[in-house]
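Consider the tokenized backbone below.
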């Protein structure tokens, strides 16, 4: 049984395990992921298991990472949400993605709001950042609803994709 990190009214966020390879393979190849996050070259179950090593290592190294978002009713994984320590960002970054069929129901806000609160309380963060592409209107709207503010536009090292960096300071 994977470690449960957060429970909300409708959701459970839990650590990913290698048993999530099929879910990761499906999510990382959705049109939304490919458009808004990019192709992570996860095209087989073996690729998905390799991808999962990142979050699993992050749990061991930092105690945080991307977590599976599952519905309390039915226990099916509907996406990812979590806190990420990136080498090329000074602050911890919130990340999220849901399968399209679960969008528009408030799940992303419910998960992300709980993750932000956990970051400030349990992890003692003073500031959380988020990155998105300018074209991702849904992500920008969610960040606004979470009270993140646009700080700057930027490029990650070695990347040609323009990104927007949002931030939220602990109140």
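A designed sequence for it:
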């Amino acid at each position: 049984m994977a470690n449960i990190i957060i429970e909300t009214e409708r959701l459970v966020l839990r650590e990913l395990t290698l048993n999530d390879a099929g879910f990761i393979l499906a999510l990382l190849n959705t049109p939304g992921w490919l458009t808004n996050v990019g192709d992570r070259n996860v095209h087989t179950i073996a690729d998905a298991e390799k991808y999962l090593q990142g979050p699993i290592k992050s749990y061991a190294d930092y105690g945080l990472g991307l977590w599976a978002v599952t519905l309390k009713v039915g226990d099916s994984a509907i996406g990812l949400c979590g806190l990420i320590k990136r080498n090329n960002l000074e602050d911890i970054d919130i990340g999220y993605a849901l399968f399209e069929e679960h969008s528009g129901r408030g799940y992303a806000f419910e998960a992300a709001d709980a993750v932000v609160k956990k970051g400030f309380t349990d992890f003692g963060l003073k500031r959380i950042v988020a990155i998105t592409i300018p074209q991702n209107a849904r992500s920008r709207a969610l960040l606004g609803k979470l009270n993140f503010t646009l700080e700057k536009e930027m490029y990650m090292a070695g990347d040609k994709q323009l990104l927007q960096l949002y931030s939220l300071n602990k109140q």
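The longest strand covers residues 77-84.
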